[in-house]
Amino acid sequence: MARHGGGRGWYGKVIGAALGVTVLAAGAAVWTAQAGAVGGTSPKATASPRPGSAVKPVAVTIVHASDKGARGLNITIDDGPDPVWTPQVLDVLREYGVKATFCMVGTQAQAHPDLVKKVVAAGHRLCDHSVSHDTTMDKQSQAYQSQQILDAERMITEASGGVRPMYYRAPGGAFTPYSRKLAASRGMRPLGWNVDTKDFERPGTDAIVTTVERELPNGPTLLFHDAGGDRSQTVEALRLLLPRLKEQGHSFGFPVR
Fold this sequence. Notes:
Helix content: 40-55%
Oligomer: single chain
């Protein structure tokens, strides 16, 4: 999610503060708890690591490139899952045969595990977007960053039935060398974006579409949102953009790892 609104994200400054108090005591336990696979039955996913798969470190650099090559695009969806908007986004993606990367907030994943499983079952990929969407992550202690990243990884993995996130996107792009290295050590490639649709501002469907068309030369990774407020404009913008971009010769893939 783009850095906007200032300070901590809309998910709960209270949640972030409360979790921060306990992070030092819990830090070592977090590593131990996440070292193995999470139990439960995972849906048949086509794009995500299976339960029990070993954690393999990935590159620490922030990725933008698509695995579909020069004409490939990556659709990324931030801040959910949300019980109203995520199903509608999934319907549009299914209608046009597009796979996306869902950057999930830990508390949202924990609250809506059925939606996390639906995202995985549809062949989309998961991305860790921290526990509480604190856009000041880059100004916080390493212990706090660790808690936000690792607890969200656990929450998302448990909610999915054992499928781990494949990427880490810092809230507001607030990466640090430490957070990138930590995420990469857990098999989560740091994920950036090239086109910020500004859909969180609800500028109108036409404005979102225009922003994408204007900024697409900046690179292949597009940023949308499925939570944090009314996302009807996002849904309609995707409905217009996906077939239009296909007609222009683009294909849709995932960020490289």
